[in-house]
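Contributing new records

If you add data, match the layout below exactly. Sequence lines come first and carry their own label; structure lines follow with theirs. Keep one chain per record. Anything else will be rejected by the validation script.
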Amino acid sequence: MSGSRFDTHDVFNQPPPFPVVNALESDPVLIGALDHTLDAGAEKALMAHGAFWGSFEARELARLALKSPPTLATHDAYGRRIDTVEHHPAYHALMRRSAEAGLGAPPAKGPGDPGHAESHRAARLFLTAQTEPGHLVAFVASHAAGSVLDLAGGDVAQAWIDGLSTSRYDHRLLPVEQKAGVTIAIGLTEKQGGVEPLDTTTAATPSAAGYHRLIGHKWYLSAPASDAILMLAEAPGGPSAFLVPRLRADGSPNPVHLVRLKETFGMRVSAAAEVEFADADGYLLGGEGDGPTLIGEAIGRLRLDTTVIAAGQMRAALAHAVHHCRHRAVAGERLVELDLMTRVLADMALDVAGATVLAMRLAQARDLAASDPQEAAYLRVVLPAAKYWIAKTGVAIAAEALECVGGNGYVEMGGMPKYLQDAPANAIWAGPGNVLALDLIDILGTDPNALDAALEEFVAELGRGGSVSAEVIRAAAVACQDDRGSARILAEQLALAAAAAALHRYSPRAITDAFLDTRLSGPWRATYGMLDGRYDARGIVDYAFHGL
């Protein structure tokens, strides 16, 4: 009976929907990290990007794309192979927006100031990832592939670089010359090798027509609906890099067979496929045997992008937790006013702030690396450590943020589970934790002086605290040469010191000092909420999330 005394459905003590915000304007930590790179035009463009990705429209597109995940069609009604991945229109709308933002363009060929192209692209990637990271897989791969094509050179490479550089999205299956824009996937992992991408059984045989014939497989290919695949195969001259279009030169389908789509734990907006190459045409990039060098360039690009995406996802998860705690009350007090909850949120905010500024600092190093050996060395050493720490911390942030929201956080409709489901992908892309830690000590083994670039910055930014951290890191680096099993200790210490130095450069002292005291000093911590009363926990939360 409507309106009777038995009607109990009065909704109260529930937070309102997450507000429509400008994702840049509401993030003073990100603005601080970018301030020295932004002129009026760049700031206006980035504000417009933040406005869209914080809008209801963007969130609704992300919701619809997730609700209708991609499906595989291997054959048409007449039995012909088509190997097509079908996506919801909302996915294509997301892709159009990110293409227009230049997220898949080759390095320094996207929109914006060439002097800060990497920094501004990283900021756009960071803002986009907060709303929907899954569709970014295609653009992360395309950007990395564009870097490889640029390095390899040649007429074939140039045609695809031109297609990537249009900053347009075109999902029609057409030859590259007829496309408004293209995307390129990267396939490295095979059944027998998950750690070493150069361990390939796919064979490449030269043909008289000027291309190679490829026979083999890839166990995991993200964004399989892309126009081409950058991959490794074993040629007569050694492991080599190839570009494999979906269409042959005559317009017929290239025999790149999508065997199945993987049922992934997260990032379900984007497809991941198992692929067979049944005598497919592939174009050699560089020379035979150049595969390790070219793919190494791609992996470096992938690592920086996944680090930025992980940092963006961390902020999004915590922003929703802060919003909930500002509106939910217990015993007449809002959760955010309860001292223990505030300290949990503030403790997480320190890691989110550290991850944000460190990701942007690495992008700045990428901008400068070509002309500054010191910056190139910093990027080379700090990147694997930063990806290690940020990707792993992202999972912990997502789990704790979900717990802050409570029962509502455990319900799919509320959106919190997606953060926890998506976060682990960042730790796997372009090398999981052990690979990153081992790569770090290999870098130090081949270039012992590379570490100096990072340590000099730590000392310059942090003073005595930086000197102490530098001594600890040097000792850990020496220990790792004899005990490779301790590599994770080095990776985490290096990342934390790098984040502290970046915070000191770009953020208020209240955040920097709290991060230094709790991350580089004091006892080892396994959970959030360990801040003591010396720190202005409420002030940290209100500064980092002032617009919610």
